[in-house]
Amino acid sequence: MHHAARSISEGAMMSALVGVVLLINRQFAGLLEYALYWLLSLPIIVYTVKYGWKKAMMPCTAMMVLAFMIALPTTMFYLASALLCGVVYGHGVQKGHSNAWLLTWCAWLTLASYFITMVLFAQVFGYDPQDDIIIAQRLMEMLSISSLNLGQVAFMAALLISVITAFLQTFCVHLLAVVLLTRMRLKAPQLKPIHTWKLPKWFGWLSICIWLLFSLKNVLKLEGNSLVLCTAVYVLDLAVLSAQGMLDVLRLAVVLHRRWLGSLGVLAVLVSLLWTPMRIFIAWYGIFRILYLA
What's the whole-model pTM score? Predict the structure, then answer.
């Protein structure tokens, strides 16, 4: 009896917290739902880890009813996607699934929500393709590409931004959930230190092939969709290699006890966004790190 009453009271508290966030979001004209809606996953993650996914359906239903009364339809969708991600993540933690399982499922669910908001119901959610065209122009200037169709590049830019943002949000939810669950002394995923993360060697060889293909795109006379796909894969590979290079700098900072090296690694990645030689150096250093220092 005491356990049931406690689960009900904690569910009511979680619903009240989400209700406060929804009211704040309404006052700010929906600003929070476009940038920080993934934070709404955290309360239901804690509840699911503690009581299971079946009991988590009760506060989820209460939150959706609350959103129906005080929020807009778009906010209800963002809340539903955050709750679904939270329940799946919490269930995975409770069952002892690996970090890869947790990250994969959360990333796919986040990508699915982006697909719905940016493709199926773009006009309902206020998605403007003109923003993609501006991003595409900047991307073409950064990569020194002039032979691509602007519409295709805009689609590629939207796809890349969606994938990268989904993975960043997944990592944010994962890290914050671990911190929150640990502080509340609940079952939490076991994390390795970030400076010990490394990619397999096969990814290094794959990156070399991708870079060679992109460098020889004019010789191979890639056009249309082939060139768009090649460029998209190249940009994703560049982002992964940059992250690997920065992690290796963090490893060096930990080993040498030099905190300034960590700041230097972050600064180098930021500079590489504007300076091509730095971007190439970081990427090839990442490949060297994967192949020979793993």
Answer: 0.70
